[in-house]
């Protein structure tokens, strides 16, 4: 992913492919030092890290760290901390896969992630290291760790915490987790950060390292604990069984711990002499360099020295739900252990607590037990005593007192505790409730109880196996099964528990015949279910229009959406057993509450016939009234020949349904007789009023039509005014709505009267212009409309319209005849220019003007930076922010003015985060720029710090080769320094992935 920022920010790309670190395993650390420094520099730009779930508090004192680690049975003194910078601290876990909740951290790098400094708490995709481009020198190593390294190796960045302590018991132990950025890529290699826990004191020769793989003498390290499936000699030479993958946690996708891997929670342990002084040193360091940091997390309060542990064990091994014993049966016991065998016996005292009474609920026990010399285990048996009546569960609890008081007086402190439950009987219970099933079906009988118990079910009829705890049951009839639970050799009474399996017969369901009904007429269903001696639950689907879906006789009430359709209902009867259903279906058809009479109210001429068109359900019966002229009154579509106007009704009926009635009116109309009068003569421009007669006159719905219809004021009215200019023959046709027709005509002679003229001809102007008009040929003038005229009665008016308009002048000659002249004036629209208020371009770029509107002629100002000033779309290339003004005209000369501001933007650069040599389009890694920039250098380094490419030509890129040799796929680091045309410096570095 590529992100590009302006020059006042920093553009960078981060590759989070943690697997890329595997390349290191085949090289030396010195060859990769430069690449690691670059990775650390990139990490400095990360400002949002996923470390909110692990909190680290650095810069602690030696005493604070030692006291945080110390728990019960240990006192400390003389704490000394030798660590560089902030390599140590306390930590607390909110949520993490580390396995610890809190404690202290010692690292050979940085403990706390803070801003751009990467510590132990962060996403595993980050890189924790203390050095950047060699500017921070290596911190000193640790001499104790140097002494355990192979010849020729030494440590850097050592961090150690050491102190004296007095144990109250004969063993000291603490919990820890070791993690490293060396994981996973450098397991089974020569690079192996070192750490150790060194104890010295009475009974210990020299310094003993407690950081060992459990059950071995092999030191915990990257080469001894990892997940390498094909280990080499670096791992196998650590000792038999190495590497120990069971103790490794792969953290490649972790979000709270920065290290790529770490161990499971391990325990350091050592035998000690109680109440004497020992010295403990906890140390970690880099080997050979200061990169790929490691750290060791030590659990808070885990440095303890308790002499013994106690564990309850159930009678005969009974452990469910908790360790327990049963009254009168095999005894339970408490198991006392010490970590290391000693040549002397150990007396362990305890306090007896709990709800059970010593000597009443169990046989009397003393207040102590002895672990024999050279032994590590002692037991105390608990024999539960019979109780009558049963008391329910009671608890025996032992509070263990420390065997070592180190010279103090008073009651010894409690160092451990355990409890054992005494039950009246064995703990076995059936969890399956009483159940009903269908004949031949199966139910899983399930019980809970200790796996040590023997189980037997009676009777065995229908059981898959009567001698297991959870058999399958399929009885032929209702059966009560009894579970018998026992513990062989324990003397315990057999426990009996029961469950009843009720058998149901699959029912036969009859929902009755299909039904027919109408809208508004409910229908009740009646279901018969056999056998009748069982109780059933009913379910109807769909539940549409039913008053209930759970009764055998619901009422169906039809709704409008169901009219004319069939609806099928599905009835399920269940006798009370899952899967034991009976089924049936019943359909109901809802007759439509309507039928369609297609023939509308109709008008006909006297003597004509109407053929009725309709559509209706054939289940209905039909009847027409009145019978006058009806061919058949009992069919839906008869023929009707009425003698006069009538309204006919047809009724559809069905038993138990409401009648449906529809009507049609047939209007019987007369055949008209027309007379328009004698022929006429008129002067041109005169009008003639005509008043024809039509019989019979009582009919009021005649339709009139004059032809030709030109020069007639109302060609569809009986009485008209004719204003034609030519000789014309007029014909009046009279019809009724039914098409009954009659007609007559008249000849009209028109004397000519075209004598007027005017100037100018039709013209066009811009808004706010005027037109001088001049008419001739008459003695009187009248102009309409008067809108926009200075004198509507003048032969020479002046027009100043604001929109397109047609003027008509009526010119009257000396004979009283009238003529008309016309002038159309088009008012062209104002000039319109629309363009952006402003645009931004980068140095070296241009912007082509693109004004929108109706103008065709343009003039731009200022001319600076323009390719032309008299075209619509010149190209602007200003060197500074410039406001351009344009004056434009339409093709009709209507003018307008507008402006646009061109702003110069700051130059930006960017670079892809991956490329693939030889595969277009991203086969060359090049810098993407916007603006004018001068490249000082563009450098690319491989993971080991070797420069594989450099150029000062910004148009040049890297083809993925070094000296003609293709470089391997992986992550590379780039650095860029450039300057804009304004002299501003641009610096950028980051990662890019080469893909092949």
TrEMBL record:
SUPFAM superfamilies: CalX-like. It comes from the Bacteria. It holds the Pfam family CHU_C. This is Ig-like domain-containing protein. It comes from Taibaiella soli.
């Amino acid at each position: 992913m590529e992100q590009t920022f302006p020059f006042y920010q920093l553009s960078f790309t981060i590759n989070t492919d943690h697997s890329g670190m595997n390349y290191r395993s085949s090289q030396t650390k010195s060859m990769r030092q430069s690449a690691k420094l670059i990775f650390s520099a990139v990490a400095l730009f990360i400002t949002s890290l996923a470390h909110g779930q692990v909190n680290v508090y650095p810069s602690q004192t030696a005493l604070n760290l030692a006291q945080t680690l110390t728990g019960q049975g240990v006192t400390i003194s003389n704490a000394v901390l030798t660590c560089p910078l902030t390599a140590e601290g306390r930590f607390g876990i909110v949520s993490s896969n580390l396995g610890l909740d809190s404690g202290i951290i010692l690292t050979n790098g940085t403990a706390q992630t803070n801003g751009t400094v990467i510590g132990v708490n962060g996403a595993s995709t980050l890189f924790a290291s203390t050095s950047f481009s060699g500017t921070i020198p290596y911190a000193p190593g640790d001499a104790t760790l140097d002494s355990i390294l192979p010849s020729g190796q030494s440590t850097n960045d050592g961090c150690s915490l050491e102190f004296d302590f007095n144990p109250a018991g004969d063993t000291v132990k603490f919990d820890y987790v070791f993690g490293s950025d060396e994981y996973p890529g450098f397991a089974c290699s020569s690079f192996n950060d070192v750490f150790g826990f060194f104890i010295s004191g009475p009974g210990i020769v020299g310094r003993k390292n407690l950081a060992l793989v459990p059950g071995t003498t092999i030191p915990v390290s990257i080469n001894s604990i990892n997940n390498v499936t094909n280990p080499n000699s670096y791992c196998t030479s650590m000792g038999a069984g190495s590497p120990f993958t069971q103790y490794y946690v792969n953290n490649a996708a972790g979000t709270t711990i920065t290290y790529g891997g770490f161990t499971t929670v391990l325990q350091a342990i050592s035998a000690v002499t109680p109440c004497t002084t020992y010295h403990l040193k906890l140390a970690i360091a880099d080997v050979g360099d200061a990169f790929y940091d490691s750290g060791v997390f030590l659990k808070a309060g885990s440095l303890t020295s308790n002499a013994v542990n106690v564990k309850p064990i159930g009678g005969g091994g009974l452990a469910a739900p908790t360790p327990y014993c049963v009254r009168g049966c095999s005894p339970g016991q408490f198991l006392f252990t010490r970590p290391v065998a000693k040549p002397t016996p150990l007396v362990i005292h305890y306090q007896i607590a709990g709800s059970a009474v010593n000597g009443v609920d169990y046989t009397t026990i003393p207040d102590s037990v002895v672990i024999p010399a050279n032994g590590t285990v002692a037991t105390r048996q608990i024999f539960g005593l019979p109780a009558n009546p049963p008391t329910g569960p009671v608890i025996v609890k032992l509070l263990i007192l420390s065997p070592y008081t180190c010279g103090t007086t008073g009651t010894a402190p409690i160092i451990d505790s355990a409890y054992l439950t005494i039950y009246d009987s064995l703990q076995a219970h059936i969890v399956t409730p009483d159940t009903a099933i269908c004949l031949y079906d199966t139910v899983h009988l399930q019980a809970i109880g200790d796996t040590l118990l023997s189980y037997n079910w009676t009777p065995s009829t229908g059981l898959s196996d009567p001698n297991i705890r959870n058999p399958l049951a399929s009885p032929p009839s209702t059966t009560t099964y009894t579970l018998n639970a026992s513990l062989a050799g324990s003397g315990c009474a057999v426990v009996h528990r029961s469950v009843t399996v009720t058998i149901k017969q699959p029912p036969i369901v009859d929902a009755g015949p299909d039904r027919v009904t109408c809208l508004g007429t409910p229908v009740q269903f009646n279901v018969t279910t056999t056998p009748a001696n069982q109780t059933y639950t009913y379910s109807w689907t769909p539940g549409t229009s039913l008053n209930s879906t759970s009764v055998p006789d619901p009422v169906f009430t039809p709704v409008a959406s169901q009219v004319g359709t069939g609806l099928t209902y599905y009835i399920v009867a269940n006798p009370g057993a899952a899967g034991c259903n009976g089924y049936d279906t019943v359909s109901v058809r809802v007759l439509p509450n309507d039928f369609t009479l297609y023939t509308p109210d109709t008008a006909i001429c006297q003597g004509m016939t109407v053929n009725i068109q309709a559509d209706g359900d054939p289940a209905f019966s039909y009847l027409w009234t009145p019978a006058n002229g009806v061919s058949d009154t009992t069919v839906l579509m008869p023929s009707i020949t009425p003698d006069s106007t009538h309204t006919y009704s047809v009724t559809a009926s069905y038993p138990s349904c409401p009648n449906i009635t529809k009507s049609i009116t047939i209007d019987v109309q007369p055949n008209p007789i027309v007379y328009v009068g004698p022929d006429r003569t008129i002067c041109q421009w005169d009008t003639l009023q005509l008043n024809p007669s039509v019989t019979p006159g009582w009919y009021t719905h005649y339709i009139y039509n004059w032809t030709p219809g030109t020069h007639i004021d109302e060609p569809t009215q009986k009485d008209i005014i004719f204003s034609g200019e030519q000789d014309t023959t007029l014909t009046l046709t009279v019809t009724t709505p039914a098409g009954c027709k009659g007609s007559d005509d008249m000849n009209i002679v028109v004397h000519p009267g075209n004598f007027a003229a005017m100037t100018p001809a039709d013209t066009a102007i811009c808004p706010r212009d005027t037109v001088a008009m001049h008419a001739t040929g008459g003695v009187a003038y009248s102009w309409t409309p008067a809108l926009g005229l200075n004198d509507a009665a003048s032969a020479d008016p002046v027009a100043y319209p604001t929109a397109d308009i047609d003027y008509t002048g009526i010119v009257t000659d000396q004979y009283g005849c009238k003529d008309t002249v016309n002038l159309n004036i088009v008012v062209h629209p104002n000039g319109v220019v629309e363009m952006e208020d402003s645009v931004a371009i980068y140095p070296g770029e241009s912007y082509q003007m693109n004004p929108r509107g109706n103008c065709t002629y343009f003039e731009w100002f200022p001319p600076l930076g323009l390719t032309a000033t008299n075209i619509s779309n010149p190209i602007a290339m200003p060197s500074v922010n410039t406001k351009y003004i344009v004056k434009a005209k339409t093709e009709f000369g209507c003018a307008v003015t507008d402006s646009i501001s061109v702003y110069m933007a700051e130059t930006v650069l960017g670079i892809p985060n991956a490329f693939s040599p030889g595969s277009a389009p991203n086969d060359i890694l090049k810098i993407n720029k916007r603006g004018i920039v001068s490249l000082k250098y563009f450098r690319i380094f491989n993971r080991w710090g070797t420069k594989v490419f450099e150029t000062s030509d910004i148009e040049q890129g890297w083809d993925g080769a070094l000296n003609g040799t293709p470089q391997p796929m992986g992550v590379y680091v780039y650095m860029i320094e450039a300057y804009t045309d304004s002299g501003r410096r641009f610096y950028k570095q980051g990662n890019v992935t080469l893909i092949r």
